[in-house]
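hi!! sorry for the late reply, been swamped w classes. u asked for the two structures so here they r. pasted raw, havent cleaned anything up. first the sequence of the first protein and right below it the tokens
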Amino acid sequence: MLPKTRYAKSGGVNIAYQVVGSGSRDLVVVPGWVSNIDVFWEEPSFARLLTRLASFSRLILFDKRGTGLSDRVSDMPSLEVRMDDVRAVMDAAGSTQAALFGYSEGAAMCALFAATYPGRATALIMGGAFARRTAAPDYPWGPTAEQHLAFAEQIEREWGGPFSIEVRSPSMAHDERYRQWWARWMRSSASPAAAATLARMNGEIDIRHVLPAVRVPTLLLHSVNDRVIDIGASRYMAERIPGAKLVELRGIDHVPWGCDADRIADEIEDFLTGARHGAEPDRVLATVLFTDIVGATERAASLGDRRWHDLLDSHHALIRRELDHFRGREIDTAGDGFLATFDGPARAVRCACAMSDGVRAFGLEIRAGLHTGECELMGDKLGGIAVHTGARVAAQAGSGEVLVSSTVRDLVAGSGLSFQDRGVQKLKGIPGEWRLFAVEH
């Protein structure tokens, strides 16, 4: 009998989810590329894994927007949007804290969620995962960008049958019943165009700079014989996530319900039931936004104190309205500038653009700078090198310009935002060189 399917509202999109089991700890499973939570239960090997996980947890399953039983969408989502969907599902399921188990590309989103919401993620488990989907000069564990785009084109040509079963589930690839289920699962999860678009979006994933900010207990599970994602990708992450544990499996499947399923369930159960709760996190991944009014001193001198303060009041009210609309958090304001944080970089960029456009009605221009990094929580204040970096980025911005670091630009891939390259620059007091980008708005 299938579990009851419910729907959580994430923005204007309905996200399908199921809750199975009644354990003392919540475990959210974040699927890979495409999914259908009803069809998952039709395959005995997959149902066996899910049942085992539900034996020691309250298991929460969901279909990402654009796939399975969830709403279809016109534009495929960025990691930030998908992260919001997890939060919406947790809220709808009454889960204040949960361990996250993401496999394949679902793992990257889990890592971003764990770094951004350490108070809601009790543990992070990643199966067959990667920090970056395509290869780079300092990251050889992936296809080239051209090869990955060719794979996306192959999807649209060959969708409908047991696509990619030979590399993702080779141990069962010659079982005709399983092949039929695999093809049905693929067709019921996404259309050919949607699957191809998701694949292209996944090709833009790069969370390498997020890894040191993951501060929750982390378990990585990866087969040394995985034909989709090289084991080197998990070894890379294990070296950069503080305290991470890597278990190298000996099977040949990329999917977690394959030949290593029992070992995977054993490792997850041991990891979760033996975990100790540490101190509350004092560091969090956040996008910081700095703004200030261009030519404030000259404008104040020309207007006089009373009129200038009236103008400042209007400016401050607009800034706070936009922060509230885009779920930003005001940290500090001094004179004509603001420091705010966001739990999603795309919202932060759009908020900065709305602020810049809005203040022009008052005859003002602002400059804005954004950076995403690990910040130190100091009561209601924020500190750390990421905050200083954000301030230095803002200092480089011109009148009316929203300037972001390359970290922000990389994290909002797929969000529809456009940027102009401002080149590599040195930021006063910040080590190294930084590539900056101006938002086109």
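now the second protein. again sequence first, tokens right under
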Amino acid sequence: MSLVGLDALVLGGGIAGLATARALALRGAKVRLLEQAAALEEVGAGIQVSPNAGRVLEALGLGAGFEAVSDESRGVRMRDAGSGREVAFVPYAGRGRFANVHRADLLAVLEQGAREAGVEIALGCRVAEVRPGGAVVLESGEALEAGLVVGADGLHSRARAALLGPQEPVFTHQLAWRALIEAEGEMAPEAQLFLAPGRHLVAYPLRGGRLVNIVACEEQAEWAEEGWQVPGDPGAFRAAFAGFGGPVPDWLARVDRVRRWGLFRHGVAARWHRERLVIVGDAAHPTLPYLAQGAAMGLEDAWVLAAELAGAESLEAGLAAFQLARAERCRRIVDAATANARNYHLPRGPRRWAAHRALGAASRFAPGVLPGKFDWLWGADVTSG
């Protein structure tokens, strides 16, 4: 079907929403994007962008803009948290461009790209109800109609609820912390991953090495609020990761503001579309942050949705083809992220010792083995079909 003139309404101005808006507009759709925030301003912190996501940005015509605001990463250096000693190094060489970027910088590139493609962006629009037939009702009472409604409205998606009904996520008993600090001295262009029983911390440079992004996760018996913009206590953050070695104590000492959020398991949606409604990104397949693929899956969704619609005989056929093309891959990614959560937090004892010994041996004697385990993920190119 031709997308020329299709009236599309995208709910959500995050990475998945802005990318989907541009992808549809580039194929001729008339796209409006609704964002509940009053401004698309600096939010969040750093994210890691693997080559599978970078290929989508390139295909969307945003490769140069993304490269200008991101820093290439050469790998992940895994360390024992207590001693700070190196356990293994996972090199990225030969597997495409891996990059670190401030979320706000990537959003700015995507926003500019959406506007240049003719997308109309409306801010301060809070959605009260979504109907599969193509109707959206705002909290103001205004009712909107569209030939296609795309729910890119995140973890608490009203679009997903319209498809599947109310669902209760399961608390994983894990809590994540996110902070940014000014860099002091030069930091290697790589991620540093500190592993401890029940906890881990990852840090990497941003914005040309001027900032250090820190994300840390711990097992937590008590319930914690979901949503990554919840303010946390820097003192509690330092206490939770006391005993970590290497540069971590200095980093934590300089944290004056931190966000925290509880990690919940929602599951990949059983159904992604009905009538004129489809969901993408976190609304369809929220994932734990242990594989750095949340943004990547949203970018892949954007491209595949537009491509499948353009190649289908009807809207219904295009939406069905989109879910068929994406569901199994996204489920595999979500499962791999969940497995990483277990592997990062191994308890003290023989299993942990053996796992670290195996990682070290692979790193020293067969450096391609560790990154090769994820070639199915990083090597994929959804734009080549």
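hope this helps!! also noticed smth abt the second:
The first strand starts at residue 7 and ends at 11.
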